[in-house]
Each structure stands twice: as structure tokens, then as C-alpha cells.
Amino acid sequence: MAKEKGKPRGLGRGLSALMADVNPEPVSTETQAPRNAEILVPIEKVKANPDQPRRQFLQEDLDDLTASIKEKGVLQPLIVRPKHGGYEIVAGERRWRAAQAAQLHEVPVLIRDYSDLEMMEVAIIENIQRADLNAMEEALSYKQLMEKFGHTQEKMAEALGKSRSYIANLVRLLHLPDDVQQLVHERQLSAGHARALITTDNASDLAKKIVKGGLSVRATEALVKKSASGDKPVAVRKTKTSEEKDADTRALEDDLSAALRMKVSIDHKPGGEAGSITIAYGNLDQLDDLCNMLSR
Asked: Which of 112, 115, 125, 265 sits between 20 and 30 A of 235, alpha carbons compared?
């Protein structure tokens, strides 16, 4: 089973350093230019990232950005890395597409020597910073940062300027049924509606009622409470699910899962200090990794 394994990346260059590339500050003419300062390159030498985390680009948004670029140019440079004699986009594909539509011949870029993992990391971070992400897209981005790169909720909260509870509550939305998640993707349900549905066993049925009735978040919370009070007490006790765990327990599960890169479940006995932790491995290599970590 023994084989060469790379050391965990931890935070790599650090989320804060990567964030600085996603949101670069203007460079003062009185100060020395930073590493790989902004330059102009022919737009035909820039290619899209085939592994771009975001696949959908709304035409209306692109049209608005194209009009803005025609009038003012590309105000924020694209982040690219050298690839096959040209450049591959790390962040800024929307600007590149709009610049093409505006028939620009050159675009401003910041050239970075990113590895494949760092490239994916920056692309995810840029998506998180976008104001038009829906709650599910944002939750999936946080999950990717935790699972692929081992980032903890605390580190993400610090670097992204958000609270840990905000991140934890969003990630919890990924436990909802697929049809409910799709309604959030389509913006028929808000993040507030979705959070209210997390603790119920019939989220799909309630979601349909919420959409059909155009219920507010407060009305949704009342509907969920009413639905729960109508359940049989015995059935609730017998069918306790992971959705009943409090936010702190779920957050701890997510942190441990990110650190171990395996699914972790915590069963904490109500009213006591005892409990159990279950770690699920997907293959023998992961079991070998786990044994090595525990033996250390």
C-alpha cells in the first residue's frame, strides 16, 4: 500500500494572497510596480479556461458589460497564466468575452505562474466574489474550497470578509434535496427560504407550496414549524436524521472533512458529553492515509 504521497497543501500561497490577485488594487505611479505588472496583450492570444467552474454566462449581463467596455474599456485586468505560447484565463472570462464582443484588439492582463490547483482556487474565489451568484452556487464554491484545498471555514471567513456562521449556514444548504436546490438555482427560492427547509423531512413538498403561494421567509418558517408539530412524536424520535444536528456540529463536521479529505459524521449524545465520530474512506489509499495520520 505504500506509495509516495505529496504533503497536504494547507493554504498554499494563502487565501489572502490569492484574493489580492482577484481584486488587485490600483498601482500608484509614485511606487515601484509590483511583480508581473499589468500589460496589454493581443486578445487573440488569450484563451478560456476549459475547467472554468462557472459554465453559465447570462447574455443580458454580457451585453451590459460589452456596452460598458465600449465606452470605458476594460477597467480591471484579466488574470492569466502562460500556456502554449499564449495565455490561459485564470479569472476574468466575462470581461474577455465582452471585450471580444466590443471588438477590442488588446486586453489588460496580470500574468501569474499558477499551478493547476492554484488556478482552480482563484477561479472559485472570483466566482464567490461575484454579486450575482445564487446561494447554491456560492455554497458549492465554499465546499470546493474546503474539499479540494483543505481550507477551514475560519480561514475562508477571515480572507473573504464573511462570518463563519454565514459560510456554515450556506454549506448546510447542500443537504437539501436536489429539486429544492434547483429551485434556489432558479431563484424561485431565496437562501432564507432554503435555510428554513433544512430541518424538515418533507422539504420538497413544502418548497412547492412556498413557490406556488409566493410565501415570504417568515411565512415559510411558520409553515415548517406547523408541519413539524403535525408529525408523530414517536416517528421523530425513531427517524432522527443528520438534519437535526445544530449548526456548530455541522460546521465541525465540515472542518474535519476538509482537513481529512474524507466524510466525517459526529453523533453527539443529547444532554451529555459523550458521542462518536464516523470517518468514511472511499478506497484503500484513503484508509492508508488515515492510519498514517492517526499513528503520528
From this structure: 265
For the stretch 213-238, pLDDT in tens is 999 989 998 898 888 776 544 333 33
Residue 142 sits at φ, ψ, to 5 deg, of -65, -40
pLDDT at res. 55? 56
In words, the CATH class of domain 35-114 is alpha beta
Is the domain spanning 116-174 CATH 1.10.10.2830? The answer is: yes
Q: Structure pTM?
A: 0.53
The residue annotated as part of the active site, out of 30, 44, 60, 93, is 93
CA distance linking residue 50 with residue 41, whole number of Å: 20
Neighbours of 184 (CB within 10 A): 22
Please write the tens of the pLDDT for every residue from 82-107. 988 899 998 888 899 999 999 999 99
93 counts as catalytic: yes
